[in-house]
Amino acid sequence: MLTYSSVLKEKEIMNTLQIRKASGETAAAPDPSWSGLYRAGGVSAVLFVVLTIISFVLAFITPQPQSSGGSLMLPGGVATLQYIAS
């Protein structure tokens, strides 16, 4: 049976489980001395995305090497050199 004292006790237990900020506590801002590092990270991320897109485009527009030719398809063979030259 629920009584007033059991309800108050339950409410007190629930209040102790809550996490609150102290009244003088504020959100921490990023350190301004790291702005160069943040900028370098942003530039490298953009460069990575651009180069990835370029690699996909080049993979689709370049001709594929010939699949027949027997020993000519060995690494360093004539077909490989012709593919590189084209």
Please supply descriptive tags for the structure shown above.
86 residues; mainly alpha; 3 helices; 56% helix; 0% strand; elongated
Radius of gyration from CA coordinates: 33 Å
Could you describe the largest sheet, including whether it forms a barrel?
none
Strand-residue proportion: under 5%
Stretches where pLDDT falls below 50 for ≥5 residues?
A: none
How many strands appear in the DSSP assignment?
A: 0
Secondary-structure-derived class: mainly alpha
Helix content: 55-70%
Shape: elongated
First-residue to last-residue Cα separation: 87 Å
Mean pLDDT: 77
H/E element sequence: HHH
Please describe what this structure looks like.
- The protein has 86 residues and is mostly helical.
- The termini are far apart.
- Helix content is 56%, strand content 0%.
